[in-house]
């Protein structure tokens, strides 16, 4: 296999700025025990009677996970309207099939060794290539695609967002549990996935489409990959869609948080694109410095300090949102983007319950209840 670079270049040259596509991953659960349940295929088959829903759901590695997609919206507002309708249909279908859905970055207690890889050529290739690394990856995320016109510009937007990624991760952290225990982290998902998969995490800065293409050529020539989807970075130009895809965030337990986080990501991509256009100076930090903030986001999320990389001083993690809102204010105003997130994120709410003595089943049940009550909206009777 190979990568059609000419088609990829055309995709970016014909892309429309700030179209939006949303992808949310949910855990498929037994409604009684809230353990992972391998019933994706059952949901997929049952969705065939609903043309809209059947087009918007997809499998994601294991049979106890399902992804719901907005498809391309002309702007953020349209994508959110689409996604809300798709969610309602999915949750109604799951209820009819006797299935619950969860939305945290990891499942707290189900054993990864009991999960089954779904039967697709792509995921069999992932399993064959990665073995334990693939088996171990029972994680759930929010991905946001934002249209960016021009291949050079898309690569440069990714470059500029590299130091922003740890802030988005800290804001989205929602996975303190893994393997049946409190990990002591705010996002165990990131430690499990980003620190394990190859070609993952925060990429290098490439500067241009030519530099980016040279790297992909290297991967192909050395038989490191056979398709572009084997590049799992936390941000990447998507060669098929002509978008910048942001993949750093944990799945969110409430619909309002998912919508607000997606809105913030769109604002960040749009502001980075505008800064590229206007030649705003950019101090490109070394990867080792970005990694310091990545670790802080993983370990303590918004409860610990992050680092202002330009000034080499700490700042409270809770100020991460304020900093991003300040930076993106011009494009948020231009695009009419409002971002309202709760005072505590998912990891903080779970940690407050843990500190108060709640057990793992009680904490997870609370998140599943919040997911059902907010994502399903009026679909649940």
From TrEMBL:
<comment type="similarity">
    <text>Belongs to the glutamate--cysteine ligase type 2 family. YbdK subfamily.</text>
</comment>
<dbReference type="InterPro" id="IPR050141">
    <property type="entry name" value="GCL_type2/YbdK_subfam"/>
</dbReference>
<keyword id="KW-0732">Signal</keyword>
<keyword id="KW-0645">Protease</keyword>
<keyword id="KW-0865">Zymogen</keyword>
<protein>
    <recommendedName>
        <fullName>Putative glutamate--cysteine ligase 2</fullName>
        <ecNumber>6.3.2.2</ecNumber>
    </recommendedName>
</protein>
<dbReference type="InterPro" id="IPR014746">
    <property type="entry name" value="Gln_synth/guanido_kin_cat_dom"/>
</dbReference>
<dbReference type="InterPro" id="IPR021158">
    <property type="entry name" value="Pept_M10A_Zn_BS"/>
</dbReference>
<dbReference type="Pfam" id="PF04107">
    <property type="entry name" value="GCS2"/>
</dbReference>
<dbReference type="InterPro" id="IPR011793">
    <property type="entry name" value="YbdK"/>
</dbReference>
<dbReference type="GO" id="GO:0016874">
    <property type="term" value="F:ligase activity"/>
</dbReference>
<keyword id="KW-0482">Metalloprotease</keyword>
<keyword id="KW-0067">ATP-binding</keyword>
<dbReference type="InterPro" id="IPR006336">
    <property type="entry name" value="GCS2"/>
</dbReference>
<keyword id="KW-0862">Zinc</keyword>
<keyword id="KW-0436">Ligase</keyword>
<keyword id="KW-0378">Hydrolase</keyword>
<comment type="function">
    <text>ATP-dependent carboxylate-amine ligase which exhibits weak glutamate--cysteine ligase activity.</text>
</comment>
<keyword id="KW-0479">Metal-binding</keyword>
<keyword id="KW-0547">Nucleotide-binding</keyword>
């Amino acid at each position: 296999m190979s990568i059609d670079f000419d088609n990829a270049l055309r995709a970016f040259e014909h892309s429309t700025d700030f179209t939006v596509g949303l992808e949310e991953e949910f855990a498929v659960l037994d409604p009684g025990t809230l353990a992972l349940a391998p019933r994706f295929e059952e949901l997929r088959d049952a969705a065939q009677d609903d043309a809209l829903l059947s087009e918007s759901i997809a499998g994601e590695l294991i049979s106890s996970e399902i992804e719901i997609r907005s498809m391309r919206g002309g702007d953020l507002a349209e994508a959110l309207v689409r996604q809300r309708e798709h969610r309602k249909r999915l949750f109604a279908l799951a209820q009819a099939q006797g299935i619950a859905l969860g939305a945290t970055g990891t499942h707290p207690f189900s054993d990864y060794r009991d999960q089954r890889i779904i039967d697709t050529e792509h995921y069999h290739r992932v399993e064959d290539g990665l073995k334990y690394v693939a088996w171990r990856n029972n994680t759930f995320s929010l991905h946001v695609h934002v249209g960016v016109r021009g291949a050079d510009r898309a690569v440069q937007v990714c470059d500029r967002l590299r130091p922003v990624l740890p802030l988005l991760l800290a804001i989205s952290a929602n996975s303190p549990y893994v393997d049946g225990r409190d990990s002591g982290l705010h996002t165990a998902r990131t430690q499990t996935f980003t620190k394990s998969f190859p070609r993952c995490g925060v990429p290098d800065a490439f500067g241009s489409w030519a530099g980016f293409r040279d790297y992909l050529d290297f991967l192909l020539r050395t038989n490191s990959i056979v398709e572009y989807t084997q590049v799992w970075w936390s941000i990447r130009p998507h060669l098929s869609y002509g978008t910048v895809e942001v993949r750093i965030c944990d799945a969110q337990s409430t619909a309002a948080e998912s919508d607000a986080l997606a809105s913030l990501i769109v604002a960040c991509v749009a502001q980075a694109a505008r800064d590229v256009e206007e030649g705003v100076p950019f101090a490109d930090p070394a990867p080792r410095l970005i990694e310091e903030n990545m670790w802080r986001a993983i370990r303590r999320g918004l409860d610990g300090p992050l680092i202002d990389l330009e000034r080499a001083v700490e700042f409270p993690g809770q100020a991460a949102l304020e900093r991003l809102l300040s930076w993106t204010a011009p494009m948020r105003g231009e695009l009419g983007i409002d971002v309202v997130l709760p005072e505590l994120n998912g990891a903080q709410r779970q940690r407050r319950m843990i500190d108060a003595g709640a057990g793992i089943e009680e904490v997870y049940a609370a998140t599943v209840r919040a997911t059902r009550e907010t994502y399903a909206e009026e679909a649940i009777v």
